[in-house]
Amino acid sequence: MTPDVNLLVAAFRSDHAQHQTARTWLDHAREASAAGQQTLVLLPAVVSGFLRITTNPRVFSQPDDIADAIAFIDAVLATPGAAAATIADDWPALRALLLRIGRGGNLVTDAWIAASVQSSSEHLVTFDRDFLQLLPTRDLTVLQA
């Protein structure tokens, strides 16, 4: 299972409106990973997006300290069975996806995440409904707030 940026931000920030839903999902995913029932994979684009958003004073009036945000990622990755994905050969999949949807801008990072998910045969979990146009439903779970 692969969490999206928005899911990690919500799980990390106790003041986030979707904190409880995200934290419950992440706790269950970590337990399942530790039990060997699934692998919990963090994509590079997701980690960088999480760090960018949680420490940004334009996003949060009280942004998080970078050391705290990194410690959260380290704790998730310390879970048995969890892994940080490497940047594989995602370019062909990303290129094809962007050309198929015919859009760039804010969808570029989401498209990179979607391409990485498909290239690595992962399953993305998110609150972001934009992924419905980027991934087939078999590769995607959109959580409700």
Write structural notes for this entry.
By secondary structure, the chain is mostly helical. It has a domain at 2-84. Helices cover 49% and strands 10% of the residues. It has 6 helices and 5 strands; from the N terminus they run βααβααβααββ. The strands form 2 sheets. Strands 1-4-5 form a 3-stranded parallel sheet. It has a two-stranded parallel sheet with strand order 2-3. α5 (91-101) crosses α6 (107-119). It is globular and about 35 Å long. The model has no long low-confidence stretch (mean pLDDT 90).
Compact overview of the structure:
The protein is mostly helical and 145 residues long.
**Percentage beta strand:** 5-15%
- Which shape, going by the Cα principal axes? globular
Counting DSSP H or I runs of 4 or more residues, the number of helices is 6
Major sheet strand order: 1-4-5
What integer value in Å does the Rg equal?
A: 15 Å
| Helix fraction by DSSP (H/I, runs of at least 4) | 40-55%
Count of individual beta strands: 5
Low-confidence segments: none
Mean pLDDT: 90
SSE class? mainly alpha
Distance between the termini: 19 Å
Order of helices and strands: EHHEHHEHHEE
Describe the largest sheet: 3 strands, parallel
